[in-house]
Write a structure and sequence with these properties.
heterodimer, A: mainly beta, 22-stranded antiparallel β-barrel, 48 strands, B: five-stranded antiparallel β-sheet
Chain lengths: ~800, ~270
């Protein structure tokens, strides 16, 4: 028995190589590569990883045919008398065609969002552009097409994933965590569409997310290497900002890419204010800068360095001398809110053996802010005759959080399957000092903490038979000074002729908790988060199970998933008396251990016919949080979510639409609004009117739903080939968000509104309290139109 | 794609938007128009009681709610009947909603430490409630008439007091004020609420006369039903499950409680300013 096995093994070889775009020489991720023997009709196949590299053991010796297929590329076929013992370079030619979801008439696609991975949702740059932009082309808004993603509002593009917590789903950029990677409070992401190769939404931390060590999946953004064909300039001029990207070759084996964005909201609103078209300017500005250099050492060996910088500020200073003769009679207002993040990631890949790769990633990421808002107002001279000033400080403080990460992964493509081994060390550092705050966004807090996390992990992806396969692994983490945890996962899959099915279970741990109060109304308007490690055990833990089915018939692809997850040992602030208007970021010492349960069923599909293609998703879900004795539905959660995107290409033009229909978010019902007045209060009491109040009696917390959410967005763009600057294209675009101006709301409450009539003396009922009760609905975005132009030279 | 397909797709996309109007409204702020508010505090020593009832979700020009109620004491039941709105002193009578004041003559004075029960019917159903009248607050000092010199129009009055745990709200009141000419000057006392956990305070009486003035103050102690309802106004909304407000019923919200008044605090303010 042994000799025949050895003999067969001796006749087998490993096909190793890299799949690249034949024009730009950029890696083609997720291409399928098959090695077919011309001698014994045997075959072996594999999928290129995100760097385009593949290793296919078990390929037959002798005459073989190598075939590679990738979305948006013409098939690549070569025959070899013997498989070369050096890395094979597969250069794939872009082939413009629409094949799958939201097909865009262009080559060089990563793939259908639901076809690339068994459970992840992957969007590429073309798909990101295909959707109607809201302000700007946005990777995070595109990834919200996934049925697993639930954006908390129109104003926050960072989604919650399958009922998880915001801190449990990090946004990663080329292997390093980005803190708060968005602009305008979270309205759109701070990663330029030009730089994105693809973005992956991992709904859980097992299988493909094991290396991250997050609690509940992740959003992984992979940036492009930059073309090695020639120097290119791409960009866009939009309503809010201008983006510019420059890329090109460096020598024969390296490439660079630099892209940045700068807003002119401050300049625009300032100009409109000067013209009298706006009451006042909005002194807000942001910019971001991303740069990447990639060196190809031949074969699968490569080195890339990614740098990222993002800065935002609201700055305003006002001073007015009321009395030139009195230096104290000056009114001043200072508003200086400055925040931003920076990150650097270094990735090196080498080939350890013919069928083994090693990846080393070093990363540093930092978010810092400096907040100051105060006013000095003159106070009339007192009894002593001296003038004075009253200081009114709104907020004062600063802080930062940083993460350093080193990670080594070894991927061994063995005959029986793929084995991945890795180790990771992460240091998290937080130093927040907000000594004074009267704004609802932030409560005063002081926090100085640091934590190390050291993890090792391993997993095996193997075929049990022709149709059965399995993935299983385990991760061990040492949260230094806190706890050690073990996080296993397992998956069993079945591959039919046109469909696949799988069941999986996973557990994950994370020591970082969030200072964010997701029940506050501010959490629907601002996405910013501050993180801090938990100080005491137990460490937050997620346990999840899921089952999935995926089938492809012609141009229709359907994926079904059901999932259940339990998150334990979370740190969540108790609801308190008024969570709706409570602070968005607050002191972590207020947090108590909490848990969460989520279940759901997801359907996603893609279909294309001719020049029309569509991508859609529906999700039903249930989420509860339990804090202390109280169990409630979190405010971001919607039981039903339907998303559909469609693109229709007509010549150089394309029309796109996106429809979102979602059940309303939970809210607390108002049973009665009952007036209240102090018993036997004297009407001569000057504070009498202050003691006349009202009691809004609500039902159970978040026990009813806001009205249905419906939003339709429409976009149009046209690609015009031009001869300027040596040739390129200019693509104007127009989009309308909330086309039907549906009155969507993100919150509802009652409020007391002062009436114009002042109270007067006299017996009741001739004079009434000078207030009336109004219903308050916090609106989502109204009908908004955006336009701009994208260019490429 | 032909025009028919385009139209089909457009209709499919637009259908949910059009259908939004077909769906029943689930506005969480849709308030039932027939909800009734009740405010009722009975005071120890008094032989009458009042209930202020209103339609809090209706406009002022709507008729007030039709509410019937009885107050039960130890061995007796007294019916409430509508009376002039001004008779319901204090409470939310100035709210621009349809209000009615109900009045009951009691067969005996309300007594401290006794439980009273209210039963009635409102447009959406019946309601019941119970309250125990607390023991009256005790003024420890001053025990005799205080003679004080005002500061401007303000007269500081130091007091010491003792209240039972049944009292949740303690409010100073001006029982009587009269200057040397026999007139009743405008006056009020601050703070309007005293700390029930404390045992002393300094009241400030604001009054508008330069003449010597005789002032009688008293402390009003109200139970916890009322106090909890007052505290509920600090949350928006105040979520269920609700604590005891003294009133329970279908579509009826408010409070029913007992109160008791302390003995008098006599103060004489000198004329000198």
């Amino acid at each position: 028995m042994t000799l025949p096995v050895l003999a067969i093994a001796a006749q087998q070889a490993t096909a190793v190589g890299v799949v690249r775009d034949s024009i730009t020489l950029e890696p083609v991720a997720f291409a399928s590569v098959a090695v077919m023997s011309s001698v014994d009709a045997g075959s072996a196949e594999g999928i290129a990883d995100r760097f385009g590299a593949f290793a296919i053991p078990g390929a037959s010796a002798g005459l073989v045919r190598l075939e590679a297929n990738a979305f948006g590329y013409a098939p690549w076929i070569r025959e070899y008398e013997e498989l070369p013992n050096r890395p094979i370079h597969i250069l794939m030619r872009p082939a413009p065609f629409t094949l799958d979801a939201l097909g865009v008439v262009a080559g060089g696609r990563v793939g259908d969002p639901i076809a690339v991975s068994r459970d992840a949702f992957v969007v590429d740059a073309k798909l990101i552009r295909a959707l109607p932009p809201v302000v700007e082309t946005d990777v995070l808004r595109a990834i919200s097409m996934s049925p697993s993603a639930s954006p908390p509002s129109d104003f926050v593009s960072v989604p919650y994933v399958r009922g998880g917590t915001s801190e449990g789903t990090p946004v990663m950029l080329d292997g390093v965590r980005l803190f708060n990677p968005f602009h305008l409070g979270g309205f759109f992401s701070a990663v330029n569409a030009e730089a994105v190769d693809h973005a992956t939404l991992l709904p859980s931390s097992g299988a493909g997310g094991q290396h991250l060590g997050s609690l509940s999946g992740a959003i992984e953004i992979a940036t492009r290497d930059g073309t090695r064909e020639r120097h290119r300039v791409t960009g866009a001029i939009g309503l809010a900002s201008t983006r510019l990207s420059v890329e090109g070759p460096v020598g024969g084996s390296a490439s660079y890419m630099v892209d940045g964005r700068r807003t002119y909201i401050d300049l625009l609103t300032g100009g409109l204010a000067r013209l009298g078209l706006l009451s006042e300017s909005f002194p807000y500005g942001f910019h971001d800068l991303h740069a990447k250099v990639t060196k190809d050492f031949g074969g699968v060996r490569r080195l890339s360095v990614t740098g990222y910088l993002n800065s935002e500020a609201v700055s305003y200073a006002y001073a007015d001398t009321i009395d030139p003769g009195d230096p104290t009679a000056t009114q001043e207002e200072i508003l200086w809110l400055d925040w931003g993040n920076a990150a650097v990631a270094v990735h090196y890949r080498d080939q350890l053996a013919p069928n083994a790769f090693v990846d080393v990633t070093l990363g540093h990421s930092r978010f810092a802010n400096d907040l100051l808002a105060y006013s000095d107002a003159p106070v009339p001279p007192g009894p002593s005759g001296e003038a004075s000033k009253s200081k009114d400080t709104l907020i004062a403080g600063n802080g930062h959080m940083a993460e350093d990460r080193v990670q080594v992964n070894v991927t061994w493509h063995a005959g029986f399957g793929t084995v991945a081994l890795g180790t990771q060390a992460v240091r998290f550092d937080a130093d927040h000092d907000y000594g004074y705050s009267e704004v609802e966004v932030l409560t005063p807090l002081t926090l100085q903490t640091r934590q190390w996390r050291i993890g090792i992990f391993a997993n095996v992806d193997t075929k049990l038979s022709e149709v059965w396969g399995t993935r299983a692994g385990v991760r061990a983490d040492r949260f230094v000074g806190l706890a050690t945890s073990l996080s296993p996962f397992g998956e069993l899959s079945y591959a039919g002729s046109w469909w696949t099915a799988r069941i999986s279970a996973s557990r994950s741990h994370q020591s970082l908790s969030s200072l964010r109060n997701e029940e506050s109304i501010g959490a629907s308007l601002l996405a910013y988060d501050l993180l801090a490690p938990v100080k005491r055990t137990p460490v937050p833990r997620n346990t999840g199970v899921s089952a999935g089915w995926e089938g492809t018939r012609g141009a229709l692809r359907v994926r079904l998933d059901i999932y259940a997850r339990k998150m334990e040992n979370l740190r969540i602030q108790p609801l308190g008396t008024d969570p709706f208007f409570s602070s968005t970021l607050d002191d972590p010492s207020l947090r108590v251990p909490a848990s969460s349960v989520a279940q759901g069923a997801e359907v996603s599909w893609s279909w294309a016919h001719g020049q029309f293609s569509t991508l859609g998703a529906y999700r039903w879900g249930r989420v509860t949080r339990t804090v202390g004795q109280q169990t409630y539905v979190p405010r971001f959660h919607r039981a039903h979510e339907f998303e559909a995107g469609a693109v229709m290409a007509r010549g150089a033009s394309s029309w796109s639409s996106r429809l979102s229909v979602r059940s309303g978010q939970p809210t607390t019902p108002i049973l009665a609004v009952v007036p209240f007045g102090q018993h036997r209060a004297s009407e001569l009491d000057e504070t009498h009117w202050q003691h006349i109040g009202w009691v809004a009696l609500g039902g159970e917390y978040n026990s009813v739903r806001l009205p249905l959410y419906v939003r339709a967005d429409l976009g149009w763009r046209r690609r015009n080939e031009v001869t300027w600057f040596g040739g390129g294209s200019v693509s104007p675009f127009v989009s309308v968000a909330n086309l039907f101006s549906a009155p969507n709301v993100l919150g509802a409450n009652v409020e007391l509104t002062p009436d114009d009539e002042s109270p007067g003396p006299g017996p009741p009922p001739e004079h009434f309290v000078p207030f009336s009760l109004d219903r308050l609905y916090l609106p989502q975005i109204p009908l908004l139109a955006f336009f701009g132009v994208e260019f490429e030279f | 794609m032909n025009a028919r397909r385009v139209v089909s797709v457009a209709l499919a996309l637009a259908a949910p938007v059009v259908c939004e109007g077909c769906l029943p409204s689930n506005d969480p702020l849709d308030l039932h128009l027939d909800v009734v508010s009740i405010a009722a505090v009975i005071v120890a020593g008094e032989t009458e009681a009042h209930v202020l009832a209103g339609f809090p979700h209706r406009p002022l020009d709507d008729p007030p709610p039709s509410v019937t109620a009885d107050l039960s004491g130890s061995g007796w039941k007294a019916p409430f009947a509508p009376t002039a709105l001004a008779d319901c002193e204090g409470g939310p009578i100035r709210w621009p909603i349809p209000l009615t004041c109900l009045h009951a003559v009691l067969p005996e004075a309300v007594r401290e430490g006794v439980a009273y029960r209210i039963e009635g019917r409102a447009p959406l159903g019946s309601f019941t409630g119970e309250a125990v009248v607390p023991a009256a607050p005790v003024v420890v000092e001053p025990t005799d008439t205080l003679r004080l010199k005002p500061s401007g129009y303000q007269l500081p009055v130091p007091i010491r007091y003792r209240v039972s745990s049944e009292i949740g709200t303690l409010r100073p009141e001006i029982a009587e004020i009269r200057d040397s000419s026999g007139d009743q000057p405008d006056a009020f006392v601050i703070p309007d609420t005293l700390d029930v956990e404390a045992d002393s305070a300094t009241l400030t009486v604001d009054y508008y006369t330069a003449r010597p003035t005789r002032i009688t103050l008293q402390l009003l102690g109200i139970g916890w039903n009322y106090t909890r309802f007052a505290e509920a106004s600090e949350s928006n909304p105040f979520r269920s499950p609700f604590p005891e407000f003294g009133i329970r019923g279908e579509g009826v919200f408010g409070y029913f409680d007992g109160a008791a008044v302390s003995g008098p605090i006599h103060v004489v303010a000198a004329a000198e300013r």
